[in-house]
Amino acid sequence: MLDGKDCPVNELFSRCGFASKSVFYVAFRKVVGMTPLQYISQSRNPFMIQRN
Predict the structure, then answer these.
(1) A Pfam family in this protein (predicted)?
(2) Which CATH number goes with the domain that contains 47?
């Protein structure tokens, strides 16, 4: 779902049952360790170096 093809991030939060985009972003970052946009970018370029 987060490959950017099925659903834009701006619509994804409501499809996942979140009341707002900001609540979704906080929950996503807490679980995955990065924002949805960072996740999409990294998944498109698996050789991207993470710097935390």
Answers:
(1) HTH_18
(2) 1.10.10
